[in-house]
Specification:
Blueprint: H1 5-28, H2 35-71, E1 80-81, E2 87-88, E3 94-95, H3 102-108, H4 110-117, E4 135-137, E5 178-181, E6 186-196, E7 212-214, E8 220-221, E9 233-242, E10 244-253, H5 254-257, H6 260-285, E11 303-305, H7 311-324, E12 332-335, H8 337-344, E13 366-367, E14 370-374, E15 382-386, E16 391-404, E17 415-428, E18 434-438
Parallel strand pairs: 5-16, 11-18, 12-14
Antiparallel strand pairs: 1-2, 2-3, 4-16, 6-9, 7-8, 10-17, 12-15, 13-14, 15-18, 16-17
Length: 441
């Protein structure tokens, strides 16, 4: 009689606990395994691994049955798995696999598997060196997908769940800007600085005479009736920007490396989020010096809007400048949480909240028809509005994850570095399509 899912789970736990007891005893006595212990460990781990394989097989069957049931009765049941991990029926119908977070991709990578292959029975020795290969990915920080900074998918098994939301802020600016890629370490682009439109109706020429003698500043004066067309002007500036590196790392113990849930938490909830938070800060406040981006707040040519009557009036007038001076269509406001709170608490003459109040939506999701991005990258008392499509973020290397114990004295302390970094460049191609708004009354 075939075993049930729970029976296989119990069997896997039983053998894993037996192996853990042997390992704990050897570690407590600060010695290597005896030949008998090593034999028992291999036996227990082999049986636990076999039980786990049966569990995964049953889980896969259950997931497939549910997917087929959702699709309808007319889908063939003879499905197989292709090289990309997707389920396909004999007719070629594809059942997409669950999207993976950055941490899950790292755990599935050849680099991580090669690292774990060096461990004896899944456990690193106290004196064993640790050095993973460089695992690169192309899905770290986009604003909308399940494997990106916009969604922040959190796995079900969290080894270090400590109320992470308390340390995070929503990151949405990348959803508005233009996202591009580059294969170079330096980017040259054209920044539009001004446009003068002198187009006007022009009468036919009634005289073929040459222009008269030079007038002011030595320019020839067109003769009357000459049918001369007016000249317009377009000013552009060539800008060079270098790709910058954003990186940080965290320590983890050698023993914790074997805990996939802890590794997932470090990569997805801490390291990945930290990269994107700094990325957003740089796009807004980067001063362009050293390894900093040239953020919108420091780009020459960005318009300004002074305080005018109240917050709503000031914000609306700024949007008008994007349209009339920048000749662009604004697609979003950036506000500090403190300023968004001020707007949320605004009431009309009958003490009614403009944005629903405590029992309503609770926050200004849109303002004058534009989405509101709440971000701490903007200082309180200042806001921005603009056509964010005219700011470009170029990805050079969206994400790399690497592990090593070659840092300071980590080797002798059984500690390992988990390093995450990305490389990108940022540029504003039309500064007057953005307005910096003074919200200080």
């Amino acid at each position: 009689m075939a075993k049930s899912m729970q029976e296989w789970i119990d069997e896997a736990k039983h053998y894993a606990l037996q192996a853990r007891e042997i390992a704990a005893k050897a570690e407590k006595e600060d010695r290597d395994f005896t030949p008998e212990e090593a034999t028992q460990l291999r036996e227990y781990m082999g049986k636990a691994t076999a039980a786990k394989a049966e569990i995964e097989k049953l889980k896969g069957n259950d997931e497939l049955r549910r997917a087929l049931a959702d699709l309808g009765d007319d889908i063939a049941l003879d499905a197989h798995t292709d090289t990309d991990g997707n389920r396909k029926t004999a007719s070629g119908f594809q059942l997409p696999s669950k999207k993976k977070t950055l941490g899950e991709q790292f755990l599935d990578s050849a680099e991580y598997k090669a690292l774990m292959a060096q461990a004896t029975d899944g456990r690193f020795g106290a004196k064993q060196r640790i050095q993973s290969g460089l695992a690169g990915f192309k899905s770290l920080v986009t604003g909308a997908s399940d494997t990106s900074g916009g969604a922040f998918v959190v796995p079900d098994q969290l080894g270090l769940q400590v109320g992470l939301d308390a340390f995070k802020r929503p990151l949405r600016l990348r959803d508005l800007v233009t996202n591009g890629t580059t294969t170079s370490d330096s980017i040259e682009y054209v920044r539009m600085t001004s446009f003068t439109n002198n187009a006007a109706p022009v009468a036919e020429a009634t005289s073929a005479a040459n222009p008269t003698a030079p007038g002011g500043a030595g320019a020839l004066v067109p003769n009357a009736g000459g049918g001369y067309k007016p000249e317009s002007g377009l000013a552009a500036q060539r800008i060079n920007t270098n790709v910058k590196t954003i990186a940080h790392w965290m320590p983890i113990t050698k023993r914790a490396i074997s805990d996939a849930a802890q590794v997932l938490t470090l990569i997805d909830a801490f390291l990945r989020y930290g990269l994107e938070e700094e990325l957003e800060d740089q796009m807004v406040q980067g001063d362009g010096t050293g390894e900093n981006f040239e953020g919108v707040s420091n780009v020459s040519g960005v318009q300004s809007q002074a305080w005018d009557s109240d917050e709503f009036t000031t914000l609306r007038k700024a949007r008008t400048k994007v349209r009339t001076v920048g000749r662009s269509i604004a697609n979003g406001y950036l506000l500090n949480p403190a300023d968004l709170e001020t707007l949320d608490l605004k009431q009309d003459n009958e003490a009614r909240y403009y944005f629903g109040g405590p029992g309503g939506v609770g926050s200004a999701q849109t303002l004058w028809g534009l989405p509101v991005i709440e971000t701490e990258a903007v200082p309180a008392g200042t806001a921005y509005v603009g056509d964010w499509r005219k700011a470009i973020l170029w990805d050079r290397e969206q994400a790399t994850i690497q592990m090593t114990d070659s840092h300071m004295d980590f080797f002798i302390r059984n500690l390992v570095v988990v390093l995450a970094e990305m490389r990108a460049a940022f540029g504003v191609i039309q500064p007057n399509a953005f307005v910096e708004i003074d919200l200080a009354a």
